[in-house]
Amino acid sequence: QVQLVESGGGLVQAGGSLRLSCAASGRAVSKIGMGWFRQAPGKEREFVAGISWGDETTYYADSVKGRFTISRDNAKNTMYLQMNSLKPEDTAVYYCAQHRWLYSNSNYYLTQEYGYWGQGTQVTVSS
Q: In this structure, are residues 94 and 49 in contact, taking their beta carbons and an 8 Å threshold?
């Protein structure tokens, strides 16, 4: 059974940093594409970052390029999102997700390509 558990959210001032973690069980993160999404109140869930299985190609939304870094630790079966230079507009619930199928490089930007989701962790950036 696939389970994804996020942690690391919290309250931070603008310009600060946080690192989110997504601990996975049930499937090896090295074999499956994964991503981070976020959802602010009253808005659609949006893509933040993705990382491919195998060669760890990374993908970023334009709004976070140069500030956020996605990575994973295969030994710990965990994915991370390092968030630097945080802005108030980054405030949202952040979700980690896994693609439906192993060894797939289907579109990392689309929510419908992901079959498994964590419960989310709140990130609040104060101005």
A: no
The H or E element that residue 123 is part of is strand 121-126
Token pair of 114, please? 């992901």
Q: Are 15 and 71 in contact (CB under 8 A)?
A: no
Q: Residues of 29-58 as b/e, b for ≥16 C-beta within 10 angstroms?
A: beebbbbbbbeeeeeebebbbbbbbeeeee
| 126: β partners | 13
pLDDT digits (tens, 9 = 90+) for 26-72: 999 999 999 999 999 999 999 999 999 988 999 999 999 999 999 99
Between these two residues, 96 and 104, which has the higher pLDDT value? 96
| Residue 49 contacts residue 56 (beta carbons within 8 Å) | no
Give the tokens for residue 10. 């919290």
SS3 100: coil
